[in-house]
Amino acid sequence: MNDLPQQAAGPDPANEFASDSSSIDPRDFRNALGTYATGVTIITAAAPDGKPYGLTCNSFASVSLNPPLVLWSLVVYSSSLTIFQNASHFTVNVLGASQQALASKFAKSSDDKFTGVDWTPGLGQAPVLAESVANFQCRSVNRYYGGDHVIFLGAVEAYTYNTTEPLLFARGAFGRFLSDDERSKSP
Length: 187
What we know:
The chain has 5 helices and 12 strands. By secondary structure, it is of the alpha+beta class. A hairpin with a 5-residue loop joins strand 2 (41-46) and strand 3.
């Protein structure tokens, strides 16, 4: 843990960004990013043959309300990268607090991630997972390369949501939101 400000050395961040010469320690940087609690999603798409693909992701964010745009990012060495790059659509499935096991299942490499998972085909055949807190069915609009990730931009064409409690992730662990009422009842 380090409370001292971390700065990248050098006057040209573009050159530093494209090389391994950063003075910022990647593990410590990841720890700092981990202090920002996020929701947990499973991003899904279908291969040209219709086979469903999915992965756990917490790099999801809204971009614009009008038009409705969202983004998420995927590491460039992911075995699923080609599927997502070539898919016409993807679905962002926001997980509920009771879906931690599902998040863990989709976070691991496996050919049978969808075995035993209740889902229906959505736009572009991208799987919509049952019992998600929300889902955003998106047409792939663009992608951008940023360091060791590809950033996917999607136009939301359909969505649903409910009032189920969302699953959260911070500091490398799953968690949940405690309301003021719940906090005051804690021993």
